């Protein structure tokens, strides 16, 4: 088939049915040309596809290892040091200075994965996440073969500079090879990953996340151009994040109290303030299950959740700094009764 025939075929089929099937076949054709050294034609094909409002080029149904991820446009509040690091990543990528591998480390709920989505959106790329369920295999040696196939696909993506590849929770496949408790097979996988990382196309942006940084093989961590620590939230940072989360969620609820001063006190009352991801879940659940006839019910529920499901006594609430009015709201007891009990203690 001549090149002109392929281009004509794409032009004609853009107006036909089965657009998803045609899109996938078009991407497959682009891959073939790219694989055989005609990257310019592959990019031209992808450009033709992207010009159609109904036909957006993606990788779905083409790779069993890579899954497209929908990007979130909701606000992502982060501490200034982390935000500055993310700006540094965006600056490095936009200036094409050869920095393309990043590792996000931190406890669960600190915003690592959501930050990857935000970075992807801000630099106008598409996000593909590695599907570990297809990558890891119980058969001896198969995971190493799958890993090689995965990186081969990554390195031969048509228009590869348009993608960010995410290895979410990379500790699932990369272990410390000197740990005596590690399986020999996983040690081979780690060694294979190191080799594949070394041959990664410089046009590909790769980001990995982990909750278990200390368990990663040090040779792996050295391969990344930058390591971003997400365990840098002060209590004040977490409270400000909680306010942003609440403000966004309140748009979906009517007749709900918007007492931010009381809300902040509730968050500060926790002995250990949860990370943003956990705070989001607690706030969302408190709102979802609240009594719509009582505007402050979600605040009562949130307080209980932050104190292991316990209803705090009036003296305890007072010690935590809540006023008589606030205690009345959180307990459903009248202000006069609250004042009387406090005067008796």
CATH architecture of the largest domain: 3-Layer(aba) Sandwich
Based on secondary structure, the structural category is: alpha/beta
Mean pLDDT: 83
Number of strands: 6
Roughly what percent helix?
Answer: 40-55%
Q: In short, what is this structure?
A:
By secondary structure, this protein is an alpha/beta fold. The protein has helices at residues 3-13, 19-35, 39-50, 80-94, 112-122, 132-135, 142-155, 184-198, 218-222, 235-249, 260-268, 276-288, 297-306, 314-319, 324-331, 335-344; strands spanning 66-69, 101-105, 126-130, 163-167, 205-210, 226-229.
Structure explained in plain terms:
- The chain is an alpha/beta fold and 345 residues long.
- The protein folds into 3 domains: 48 residues, no CATH class; 164 residues, Rossmann fold (3-Layer(aba) Sandwich); 110 residues, no CATH class.
- It contains 16 helices and 6 strands.
- It has a 6-stranded mixed β-sheet with strand order 1-3-4-5-2-6, covered by helices on one side.
- Helix 11 packs parallel to helix 13.
- It is elongated, with a radius of gyration of 26 Å.
- About 3% of the residues have low confidence.
- Keywords: ATP-binding, Nucleotide-binding.
- InterPro entries: 26S_Proteasome_ATPase, AAA+_ATPase, ATPase_AAA_core, ATPase_AAA_CS, P-loop_NTPase.
Question: Which features does this protein show?
Answer:
345 residues; alpha/beta; Rossmann fold; 3 domains; 6-stranded mixed beta sheet; 16 helices; elongated
Question: Could you give the topology of this structure?
Answer:
Layout: H1 3-13, H2 19-35, H3 39-50, E1 66-69, H4 80-94, E2 101-105, H5 112-122, E3 126-130, H6 132-135, H7 142-155, E4 163-167, H8 184-198, E5 205-210, H9 218-222, E6 226-229, H10 235-249, H11 260-268, H12 276-288, H13 297-306, H14 314-319, H15 324-331, H16 335-344
Parallel strand pairs: 2-5, 2-6, 3-4, 4-5
Antiparallel strand pairs: 1-3
Helix pairs in contact: 2-3, 7-8, 10-11, 10-12, 11-13, 12-13
GO molecular function: ATP binding; ATP hydrolysis activity
Domain AAA+ ATPase: 98-234
Organism: Candidatus Minimicrobia vallesae
